[in-house]
Write a structure and sequence with these properties.
Number of strands: 17
Order of helices and strands: HEEHEEHEEHEEHEEHEEEEHEHEHE
Low-confidence stretches: 1-39
Shape: globular
Strand content: 15-25%
Number of helices: 9
Structural class: alpha/beta
Helix content: 10-25%
Mean pLDDT: 90
Strand order of the largest sheet: 1-2-3-4-5-6-7-9-11-12-13-14-15-16-17
Distance between the termini: 14 Å
Length: 431
């Protein structure tokens, strides 16, 4: 998936049984050991080096259990090139993550990435971050609840998690408290409460390159953004984004990548993207865009990558994108079908095309030869197409001009994958 919030494709491994299957007086089970050779995700026993670390990991894992669901939402990712493995990434979801639970990060000093999603942590609880001397990214994000009839949920989408209007909220005051952490490179604050004046603290992080903000963009915001020499990536969302805000962003000359997620965009706002003259990548995710509205979408001369994941695009509106001269286009979780595939052939400049989870594409669409005619393509994503099977193998091997093709979560068999690899020696076939 070509998204910010796209940014790394991973598999979350769950290790503990739901709390509902144990009585209250039973002790929590010990985390299960990994198989020989280890695993980058989950609970890696080889990396647990102290009783305090074991207690922290066990309690955090317990706090991520949702009654009636298998496993835990708590996410652990390890750097396995170190001996012993180092816990580098921690993700925490939901109301059981309190200040007391979060304080346990003090036993996890190697953390480089920490993400919290609609927890019960407040500004006071974040004081524990001060002990993480390697911290590179910190995220305070809303839970993704995207779901679409006939589609499986995308990775990290949890529509079963109830929304809570009265939960504690982290505010902009915490930025000053984080100032001593000079290693920060990315701050995602979409679920915080931030004022433009709070952003004066950004100058404390000379390495900061990416930022997500919930507040409306004004001249003061841009002034503080410009004070960060390496900051080039911005994410906005979960509200209406106006044309006026985008026009203010035109004054930020180092902006290279803009993500807008779960937002309302007027026709005027879509047109205003053309004012961002330095923009190279634009992500409009889950913004309820349909084909007819693509006629209003404008891009600057430097725009080469457009991602339109999780919208309602059927295909005819693709003609409006041809004028943008894109190199990369993401259409994951849209309504592209066998019938509308021919519209894609108008994209004569696109080299990287992501159609993953466009469930309307079947064997019939692959066998039509439409995509094979796009000989300008170098990368093609077909992940999640459940109706693409071994019946299309003779047509799939015609993609031998590609550098990379993704066929994960299709019905292509292991034998079929091997046939493709042998017939397409210059193509990486990712299954």
């Amino acid at each position: 998936m070509l998204t910010r919030l796209s940014r790394i494709a991973v598999t979350l491994t769950m290790f503990l049984a739901p709390a509902s299957v144990r009585s209250a007086d039973q002790p929590a089970p010990k985390p299960k050991a990994e198989p020989p050779g280890g695993n980058q995700f989950g609970i890696n026993q080889a990396g647990i080096t102290s009783p305090e670390m074991r207690d922290a990991i066990t309690r955090m894992n317990e706090a991520g259990i949702v009654e009636g669901r298998k496993g835990s939402l708590t996410f652990f990712r390890w750097a396995t090139d170190a001996k012993p493995p180092l816990l580098a990434h921690l993700g925490l979801w939901g109301p059981k993550i309190t200040n007391d639970v979060f304080a346990l990060v003090s036993a996890l000093p190697d953390l480089e990435h920490v993400s919290v999603y609609e927890t019960n942590i407040d500004d006071k609880g974040l004081a524990a971050l001060a002990g993480l001397k390697k911290l590179r990214t910190f995220s305070v994000l809303p839970i993704t609840r995207y779901e679409k009839a006939g589609f499986g949920p995308p990775q990290w989408s949890y529509p079963f998690m109830a929304q809570r209007a009265d939960r504690p909220r982290i505010t902009g005051k915490v930025l000053a408290d984080l100032a001593p952490i000079k290693t920060l490179e990315s701050l995602d604050l979409l679920d915080a409460r931030i004022a433009s004046s709070d952003l004066a603290a950004l100058s404390a992080w000379p390495k900061l390159s990416s930022l997500s903000l919930p507040n409306a963009i004004d001249a003061e915001t841009v002034k503080h953004l410009q004070a960060c020499p390496k900051l080039a990536t911005l994410t906005l969302g979960y509200r209406e984004i106006t044309a006026a805000e985008l026009e203010v962003l035109a004054d930020w000359k180092s902006l290279r990548k803009l993500t807008v997620v779960h937002a309302k965009l007027s026709d005027e706002a879509l047109q205003a993207f053309s004012k961002l003259g330095t923009l190279e990548e634009l992500y409009l995710m889950d913004c309820h865009l349909k084909d007819d509205r693509l006629q209003h979408l404008r891009g600057s001369a430097k725009l080469s990558y457009l991602a339109l994941q999780r919208n309602e695009i059927d295909g005819p509106g693709i003609e409006h994108l041809a004028k943008l001269k894109l190199k990369k286009l993401g259409l994951e979780f849209n309504n592209i079908s066998d019938k509308t595939l021919p519209h894609l052939t108008q994209l004569t400049t696109v080299e990287n095309l992501a159609l993953s989870y466009c469930r309307g594409v079947t064997d019939m669409g692959i066998q039509s030869g439409t995509l094979q005619k796009m000989t300008n393509l170098k990368q093609l994503g077909l992940r999640g197409m459940k109706q693409v099977t071994d019946a299309s193998l003779d047509d799939l091997v015609k993609f031998g001009h590609l550098e990379h093709i993704t066929i994960r979560e299709t019905k292509i068999s292991p034998d079929g994958v091997e046939k493709m690899k042998k017939a397409m020696p210059k193509t990486v076939v990712f299954k």
